[in-house]
Specification:
heterotrimer; A alpha/beta; B mainly alpha; C alpha+beta; A: alpha/beta; D-Maltodextrin-Binding Protein, domain 2; six-stranded mixed β-sheet; elongated; B: MetI-like fold
Chain lengths: ~270, ~250, ~350
Amino acid sequence: MLRRLTRWAVAAPVALALVSGLSACGSDEPGTTASASPAASSAASSSALTVFAAASLTETFTELGKTFEAANPGVKVTFNFGSSATLAQQITQGAPADVFAAASPATMKTVTDASMAAAPTTFVRNKLEIAVPPDNPAKVDELKDLADAKVKVALCAEQVPCGAAAIKALDAAGLKVTPVTLEQDVKATLTKVELGEVDAALVYKTDVLSAGGKVTGIDFPEADKAINDYPIAPLSKAPAPDLAKKFVDLVLSQQGKDVLVKAGFEAA
Amino acid sequence: MLLAVLGMAFLVLPLAGLLVRAPWSTMPERLAEPQVLEALRLSLVTATIATAVCLVLGVPLAWLLARVSFPGRRLVRALVTIPLVLPPVVGGVALLLVLGRRGLIGQWLESAFGFSLPFTTAGVVVAEAFVAMPFLVISVEGALRAADLRYEEAAATLGASRWVVFRRVTMPLIAPGIVAGAVLCWARALGEFGATITFAGNFPGRTQTMPLAVYLALETEPDAAIVLSLLLLLVSVAILAGLRDRWVTSA
Amino acid sequence: MSGSEQDPGNGRPRLEAHLVVERPRFRLDVELAADAGQVIALLGPNGAGKTTALRALAGLTPLSGGHITLDGRALNSVPVERRPIGVVFQDYLLFPHLSALDNVAFGPRCQGASKHEARRTAGAWLERVGLAEHAAARPRQLSGGQAQRVALARALAVEPRLLLLDEPLAALDAHTRLEIRSRLRRHLGDFDGATILVTHDPLDAMVLADHLVVIENGAVVQQGPPAEVARRPRTDYVARLVGLNLYRGAADEQQVTVGDVIFSVTERIHGPVFIAFPPSAVALFRTRPDGTPRNLWQAAIEGIERHGDNVRVHLEGPIAAAADITPAAVADLDLTAGQQVWAAVKATETHAYPA
């Protein structure tokens, strides 16, 4: 088919479509694909619960979702994991979600400012670690090593929570680090370490744990200055408000905490 | 007719959405930010270089696929389209596995020349060229296949050597296909996001192209993202329209 | 039309070729010779191998065997671009992106002329074919006849020693064809090299060529001067082309036996012969006419069709034949398909020659 597109008349609009499609390129990120559609289809029934949660909660919340379904027979929990900022956008644009669990207070604020949720609760905290490849080629063992110009460092972009946290930690340590890249999310940052493209990166402890043995995590004291709070809230326009409250309760319960702490989060 | 209108609407309405939501009042100061212009410049430069790279490598490849019969040609043709079907992020990872610091070839590049592609502007060009090349190859191959071989024979009977035939007959005959392919290629390179951010990373002034800037702006400032998108759109349409006039009138 | 400067006076053909091209289920094997200034027409039905022969001469189709010698020089292994040939292709193949002038200048340019020089040569050629005022036109702006003339000028501008024309008039409408045919005849007359013309139209061949070579199924079935071929066809295909009824028979003095039918002929001849007569020489009768049983046979009407001002009646029976009679005769005889009639031919209108 494309083979025939040799004429300008055809080529130009296609070219435009390609260019104008760039904002959709964001969906290349695995976490944000298939965004609102599962939520829309299940919202009609009161036995369905839709949870929008930060991508870093994928493993833990999926496990809690199963627990929740077991405790509430007939209820189907649907998750939409993604960048907190994107999820907040979707919620303020009217996506039919019941619960929002964000990776930063700032993104939750977008939602509360729009009066879409009230009284969020901080349910866990996440701490930064230095992630290095298992063979640690640059011999990194503390934060100031990252300031060495010979060490290739990946950080999250400041627009995303892990990037904001990294800047806070480096500022607290009084360090000036020039990264080779500012990644669009924490998973991408971690991938660069896993592939050995960079010598070190600042990511969350939970991400280091979820990467298994592919990266090594190094604790550093300045991380305490940049702890990231994860707020959760039932949404005010929730199609299933009762289930929403129940799910938030589960996350805040001891059972919920156990699951989250096991994954590397710190209890709030 | 109705379907054509629907098709048009489908393509144009998202653009209208951007226009309606654009924060016109704050537009001037947002555009004046040096980071924006830097990203725009980087986008235009890398997309253009990537297109040039695709032309240099893609036209001979298209020629090979269209004109030379060799075993496994169908397989090669299928392989050429891989970047089209591969999610760009995966393409970026694949590039890292080959050209990255620990990649098959990258390893050697680094030890021999101390040179590493990821996180460099050259890396952006590589990522864009990888994703955009199929558009060029497919267009040019199609043009070569559609071109009447007998013109080349006629030229040979007039005393033209193979090179003269290619330069004075084949190339002009497939010029519209090459131009169309280059335009598709350029447009695709300009909008490239996934492979670029994965392979070349994101660093302002070096590897942060407009789509990357748009994506990150979307995280915190959706209005800024709209402004950046419109700017990229406007510049690309202006360039394409300019090219089009020049080529169509002379062809 | 005189002998070439290179080998004066000895009458050796300029072109001597034995073309063998083998393909799955097809084999071309023909010998061709052409003197300086001579025009040879390759005539034959579709798929006979005419175009293949032309392409082989041009070097566009490799020979499986045989040889090509032009002016005493072997061309077999000379690549296309170095052969001293000019080709006019069936649909001309003028380069669409070049003006008429630049199309004609293409060849001289390839031969090393400067741009200016090549254009001057091209301009002169366009002038000769009467298209000077169309020099700047793109091929798509030219009429069929004009395009054909540009193609001829382009082929001649390289000053070839061998001119190859592939169905040069086939793409033209009837009216243009008449005019272009006579123009082409003039230009071919001026050309001092050898010309090979491929056509399936006997009229083109008769008007343009000095010598006809008829090809069927990849082999030469008959050749000779046009008048000779027209008078003495040797295959059904040629007989149909020139519009004659043709039979193979056995002659004994002035009598030829074709199956059950006996013809009287004017020639004194013995042994296997061809006998030919035009459809207009055949007369039809409802009942058996009186007189000699010779030149007479009973036939069934297979079909009736208009043919020019007359009516052509196709007959089956002991021999298949075509008869041209007037519409009035059809009405008088009340002829319909399937009907039995008697057919007779005048001895003076038959022509017998050795097979």
